[in-house]
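Q: Can I borrow your eye for a moment on a structure tokenisation matter? Would you mind producing a protein record, from residues through to fold? Write it directly below this note and I will take it from there.
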Amino acid sequence: MSRFNGTRLPKEIFRIDAERMQRGWYSDDYFITSRWILEQLSRENYSFSGDFSDHLLPSHELAQHLVGDAMVEMQIFPRRSPFTLVVGVDEALAIIEECAGYYDDNGDFVSTFSELEIDAVEDGCFAYYAGDPLQVQPVIRIRGRYRYFSLLETVLIGVLTEASRIATNVFNLLEAAMEKRIFFFPARFAHWKMQGVHGYAYSLAVDAFKDKHGTKADKLISTLGQGEWWGGSGAGTVSHALIAVFLGDTAEAMYQYCRLIPAEHSRIALIDYHNDCVGETRRIILRLFREYWRLMQQGDEAQANLYRLDAIRPDTSGNLADISVRPRSEDDFGVSPELIWNLRHLLDNISQDPLVVQELPLEALPLLAKWCSSVLITATGGFDAKKIAWFHKLGVPVDSYGVGSSLLENNSSTRNDYTADIVRIKIGDTWHHNAKQGRQACSNPDLKPYLPLPSSKKL
């Protein structure tokens, strides 16, 4: 079943600063200057009187061309190879709808959105680019009087660039991880105002991955802000700061978390506070399982479930090697393959661990083995698509990854350049090619006429 349903996010969710956008507050200055020139020329009823030599049209037709009221076709397209996962179209369309127009002599804004002809793709589609600027896939195409929307190019491209970069980065990382879950953890690396945009881009990347590969992929975010546009909610673990308040006693901090937090919330233990992930995991297991065992002996399974352990999360700094790891190269620092294997070995062989066996009754050990068998490993700290692909190739038994700053990368391979070009102009009743060298009007089968109908997407 396609994830596309023809609906779009409601305009209100974007909190568009419409009045200042209409006046060019967020526009590059040369767009403000260009619009002012066109408005003056329109008042003067100026017709084109420049050099006719480069045009195929008869000079008498060109002389009738009113520059200030020029009717143009503009296409907006990405140039990330080999593809861009397109996000930001809904917000861009909302900006056009709210801000296309002009101020009359009384200082009142006159909307001209209804005079524009707009085709657009849906958020979450792919646009492909093989490096040829003459063969691009526009994601928005606008036809209309240029001065009505000339101020908006800067903000439209910015909206599309930011959201598409995040979505494409997430999609590529999901493909590197394949069946592994990805926790979306970049909130602390960007301005808080970006959480809604970034979280929405992440959610569409997950949808695109599921649609392409036919696999299940959970949406795992860390803040409510990241889920604002699509209804997601944040989840996470205990923090290093909470452990510090417990004087570094991770086991006690985790015990109190389990005692106080409702059972429907995940129990994921952060285990690297003392750079002894295996030892910390052992102490947490003993602290929680003792209470689990006591309550199960009393027949109180519901209460015992509070003290389950869903996952452990090593987050070792990249300049440290865990004490269970013998560093032989830089690959052994931080969250390394050897550290994950050591943790998995502990979990899978917990009932034979001598330090655990001496602390528990023999009759509790079979239940302990079952209790630990479902504990997952979530790896965080310095992960990107390259490192995840390396772990996958080695068969490292990670069940999920938490990824942060790498999802915001904007380097030569992750940059999502968008470009807006006028490619046609209307002279009389006919549209003519009119693009700078190296550009031409292109098509995209996913373009559809945009009509601002009531949205049915839920917040």
Remarks:
- The two ends are 22 Å apart (CA to CA).
- The chain is about 35% helix and 15% strand.
- The longest strand covers residues 418-427.
